[in-house]
Amino acid sequence: MPTIPPDIIAAARASQAKWKIPASISLAQWALESAWGKSVSGKNNYGGITAKVSGASFPHVPGTPLEPATLCWTREVVNGQSVRCQRYFKDYASAEDYFDAHGKLLATGKPYAKARALLPDPNAFADALTGVYATDPKYGSTLKAIMRGSNLYQHNLPLA
């Protein structure tokens, strides 16, 4: 498995300390969504967080961004089929800003309330992100495999 840069681990742990989302989740999403930091969707966007847009018609019309964003090609699962499409992904000033926004999104976003109810279990949380955070029906299983295979659980801080 590739190694995770120390600044990425520190940013995920700082996000956990603030937002109570396990660092192992943030790091697994970082690894999966950015190919271990090699590919970002949007400036410093390591987790595929989409931008707010107007006039979008998912999955074929990307719309107009309402915040700093980058238009990227991506794959989404629509009606059981993998579809290549363009989407706007939010830009961030730094990796730290991304991890803070990611933690806030998972910790406060309405779509993730059911997942949060499963904390502190990162595996159950990962499963609950399937179909909510990402359209891939294997998303939670993939996150768990990355967490296990790279021992990302070691980066979790004790939850208060």
Automatic annotation (TrEMBL):
Annotated Pfam families: Glucosaminidase
Keyword Isomerase: no
InterPro entries, sorted: Glycosyl_Hydrolase_73, MGlyc_endo_b_GlcNAc-like_dom
Organism superkingdom: Bacteria
Domain named Mannosyl-glycoprotein endo-beta-N-acetylglucosamidase-like: residues: 3-156
Keywords in alphabetical order: Hydrolase
Record bears the keyword Hydrolase: yes
Gene3D superfamilies: 1.10.530.10
Name of this chain's protein: Glucosaminidase domain-containing protein
Protein species of origin: Novosphingobium humi
